[in-house]
Design goal:
Layout (H helix, E strand, L loop, with lengths): L12 E2 L4 E2 L4 H11 L3 E6 L2 E7 H8 L21 E2 L5 H11 L3 E6 L2 E7 H11 L3
Parallel strand pairs: 2-3, 5-6
Antiparallel strand pairs: 1-7, 3-4, 6-7
Amino acid sequence: MTTKEVTIAERMTKTPHLIGAEQSLKTAHDLMRKHHIRHLPVLHGGKLIGVVSERDLHLVATLHDFDPAHVRVEEAMSQDVYAVTPKTALKEVVREMAARKLGSAVVVEGTHVIGVFTTVDALETLASVLPA
């Protein structure tokens, strides 16, 4: 008997919120707070170029003379994006995120961002397989 390997598409958050690189950190923070999220894929010209996290925003906020309305997302984002396709095995993504201590993986199909998989998604997956 064989079991089907679970893909990231089955556990990702679909249609994630996105932000443009030229948007302000205040806009990013407001979007995160409104939707209760901690990661935003960053686009420029429709292309994925980074991810900005709640941690990135807090780090930049500690800088002297910081005004989130005048700092662009691209100045605070991480450019090292872990991007995967929807058919990537969940097991592979989780292992890579753990090894690299990443908070999210961005799921792309071609050039389009179609999902995000975060540590919260991973914990929800774990909770679903543990006995009640």
